Description:
alpha/beta; 2-enoyl-CoA Hydratase, Chain A, domain 1; six-stranded mixed beta sheet; two-stranded parallel sheet; about 50% helix; about 15% strand; globular
Amino acid sequence: MTKAYVKSSVNNQIATIEFFHPAHNSLPSNILSQLADSITEACIDDNVLVIILKSGGDRTFCAGASFKELISIEDELQGEKFFSGFANVINAMRKCPKFIIGRVQGKVVGGGVGLAAAMDYCMATKYAAIKLSELNIGIGPFVVGPAVQRKLGVSGMSQIAIDANSFYDAEWARQKGLFTKVFDSTQELDEEVAKFAENLCEYNPEAVKHMKQMFWKGTEDWDSLLIERAKISGKLVLSEFTKEKLKRFK
Length: 250
């Protein structure tokens, strides 16, 4: 596969949303926008009871922000717009009245950790090590931070945010609450995700809706909070420190 995409399908009231990018499933603006729209569409589709969110390929789940696009940002407004893409995806997941199951087959970096944290129930393979790498390039996990902190707690989130050069293994992430189950293979993961999604379809949709509201209580300000965080990242990405760091990746 060489072309980026976001695709959705519905089968037996289960919506599967899959994103892919040839650069380790990184997330440029257009993919973030399509992802937010696909999630929103599935959330309002009366034929959908459960959503599965996954990425294509058999290696990295998500490499986070697109370095190519980060390098191309020329002003604060452009930077804010780019990072707002992550805010829009997380808020779409937060507001969804249906359970979103995460299927994480490989490494998760930066903004990808935020996506995993915003899922209602996330399962992974033992290869799904996680890293918050943002401080390493002079910015920080500001937009995804609230979602990550909500799942890992302040201690867990600060540990991986400060130690921006290290991967933490899937078992560590499971113990901290990011992953609910960790499997030895992608096949086992897929079998469990499919079975679990089918089970969730037996739940009362109204009960699920109220459970989602209960689980996400206290996040009602995220529409504005995450945009404010996007402004911070949009400003920092223009700093000389970050520009020099990004040149090394170019």
